[in-house]
Every structure is written in C-alpha cells, then in structure tokens.
C-alpha cells in the first residue's frame, strides 16, 4: 500500500501486513442470530412507524375534528368510544405499537451510549419492566373499563349512566 492509498475502513492488518479488500476478523459477522434480531428490530421500527402515523392521525381526527371537537372530550366521550370493540382495538393497537416502538428506540440508545455491560443490562431491564407494566395496565384499562360501576349493589353516580 502506497503512502497516498487509503486503507478500507474495516480492513485490518492480518499477520503484520495489510490485507486489501479483506475484512478484519473483528468485523466479520458470525452465524449468531443477533444480526437477524437487529435487522428485524430495524424493520419493525419502519413498519410500526407507518402504522402509528395512521393510527394517531385517525385518533386525532375522530377526537378533535369530528363532532364538537375538543369540547366534547370528557369521561362520557371516552366511555361511549370504548363501548365499541372497534375503538378498543384501535386504541389497543396504538398503545402496543407506541410502547414497543418507543422501547425499541430507547433500547437502541442504551446500546449506543451505555459503556459498561452491567449498566447496559440493568438499564434495559428497567426499560423492559416499565414497558411491560404500562402495556399490561393499559390493556386492562381498555378491556375492563366500566363507565357505570356498581359497588355493593349501588350504582355510582354519573351524568350519563341510566338511573
């Protein structure tokens, strides 16, 4: 290699002499599944991002532009919306995709910036635990929501619940 020739960024010197056109051993891919996981995570980010745009703009249009707009949003509005299984699954898809999309993005940031393996491990464990709790609680709220609860045989008051 001459003084003016620039070495390929991922080529290395094998055995003390430069190997032009060859990839250094530390940059070679092995047969592990980590590369496949990262490729699938990258693909998930792109696809979930497109689906989230549709879900979020649909959510905003229905909640803010249709009917009385923002002035109609109250407990009764949400109760009426979640009485329909279509809107339950719409909001569930939005919750799950947003949480998984965000978790995957933060996981990537942790992998990029956490230097110690132990720090990286614990940050990701906290991230996964928090995401799981939010997904589970959000799913429970969407499917167990009762706008007219009955406690000890007495229906709790609400302006929209039948007496």
UniProtKB/TrEMBL annotation:
SUPFAM superfamilies linked to this entry: Fumarate reductase respiratory complex transmembrane subunits
Key word Lipid metabolism present: no
Protein location: Membrane
Main location: membrane
GO CC, one annotated term: membrane
Region described as Disordered: 1-27
InterPro entries xrefs: SQR/QFR_C/D, SuccDH_FuR_B_TM-su
Keywords attached to this entry: Heme, Iron, Membrane, Metal-binding, Transmembrane, Transmembrane helix
GO molecular function: metal ion binding
Transmembrane segments: 43-66, 86-104, 125-145
Chain intervals with Polar residues compositional bias: 1-11
Record-given protein name: Succinate dehydrogenase hydrophobic membrane anchor protein
């Amino acid at each position: 290699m001459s003084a003016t020739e620039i070495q390929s960024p991922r080529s290395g010197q094998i055995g003390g002499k430069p190997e032009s056109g060859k990839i250094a051993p530390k940059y070679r891919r092995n047969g592990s599944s980590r590369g496949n996981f990262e490729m699938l995570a990258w693909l998930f980010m792109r696809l979930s991002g497109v689906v989230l745009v549709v879900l979020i703009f649909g959510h905003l249009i229905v909640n803010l532009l249709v009917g009385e707009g923002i002035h109609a949003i109250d407990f009764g509005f949400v109760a009426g919306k979640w009485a329909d299984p279509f809107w339950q699954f719409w909001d569930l898809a939005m919750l799950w995709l947003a949480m998984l999309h965000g978790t995957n993005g933060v996981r990537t940031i942790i992998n990029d910036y956490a230097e110690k393996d132990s720090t990286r491990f614990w940050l990701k464990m906290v991230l996964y635990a928090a995401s799981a709790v939010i997904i589970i609680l959000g799913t429970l709220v969407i499917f167990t929501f009762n706008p007219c609860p009955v406690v000890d045989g007495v229906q709790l008051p609400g302006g929209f619940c039948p007496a």
